[in-house]
Design brief:
With 282 residues, this protein is mainly α. The chain is 84% helix and 0% strand. The chain has 11 helices and no strands.
């Protein structure tokens, strides 16, 4: 009987020891991260402070909902008159032309710049200078760049196209450089060992590895340029944005709705086409 009691006590002690070890491990698995908590508290405090500084209030939000409802009511139904549709078609066609030209020119300029910015292919002085140029291209929003080009070359599609070319080069060159740096260097070293020129090295060893990603990046940039073509048009860059700005100035809110719906439809078609292009070249 005593032996049985001693055996039970030993089993119970082992179980309690395992429970303490398990509890200790659970406590150590997720230790409190006090620096992160302090950062989150500081961030929450700053958000509260910022809302008071920029005059955010619930009453203004409620008033805005009422005014927004009246504005939407003035937009309905969309205006499908013949003369309006002609303006819509011409503006949308110009935006498509701006986006396609800007994407093609941006891809052509981004390829050499991205290869020059790749640190596994270029010497560090060239890579550093190329990356600095990429950062300069990515510094400003396309709308700001479009304002500068409008001042330089005047109103119209040329200013919008140049602004989107700058945006495309900044975005694509960065992604091209990163994709090139992530590729396998075994093929590059094999082609380089044959004494091939740099152009042959790029064609035979680099392009086959990254072509699918390049196509995906270019398709995404085309989709982005379709959206941004409407933005640059608002500041004088031509395209459907100029038509939209004119409709706002004339208080043709029903025609504004027609333009917005048309832009949404074009963007959806562009998304479908870009997805098809990515699947085709995978």
């Amino acid at each position: 009987m005593a032996a049985r009691i001693g055996w039970n006590d030993m089993i119970q002690g082992i179980s309690q020891g395992k429970a303490r070890v398990s509890s200790h491990r659970r406590r150590d698995a997720f230790p409190p991260n006090w620096p992160m908590r302090l950062v989150l508290v500081a961030l929450a405090t700053y958000v509260i402070y910022a809302t008071t500084v920029i005059d955010l209030s619930w009453s203004r939000f409620v008033i805005g909902l009422d005014q927004g409802a009246r504005f939407i009511a003035r937009m309905l139904p969309p205006n499908m008159a013949g003369d309006k549709l002609d303006l819509l078609f011409n503006g949308m066609l110009e935006s498509l032309q701006i986006a396609i030209i800007a994407t093609i020119v941006g891809v052509v300029l981004s390829l050499p710049l991205g290869l020059a910015a790749a640190r596994n292919l270029s010497p560090w002085p060239l890579a550093w200078m190329a990356r600095t140029l990429v950062v300069l291209f990515r510094t400003f929003h396309p709308v700001i760049v479009a304002i500068l080009f409008v001042k330089a070359v005047g109103f119209g599609a040329l200013a919008g196209m140049l602004a989107l070319v700058v945006a495309s080069v900044g975005f694509l060159a960065k992604l091209f450089a990163e994709a090139t740096e992530e590729m396998s260097m075994k093929q590059v070293e094999g082609v380089r060992a044959t004494g091939a020129s740099f152009l042959s090295l790029v064609v035979m060893a680099v392009v086959p590895q990254v072509m699918s990603r390049f196509i995906g990046f270019s398709a995404y940039q085309l989709d982005s340029n379709l959206r941004n073509s409407a933005l640059v048009g608002l500041v004088g860059g031509g395209g459907i944005g100029a038509t939209l700005f004119t409709a706002f100035q004339r208080f043709d809110y029903d025609f504004v709705l027609t333009i917005v719906l048309s832009v949404i439809a074009v963007i959806m078609v562009g998304e479908i086409l870009s997805g098809w292009m990515r699947r085709l070249f995978q």
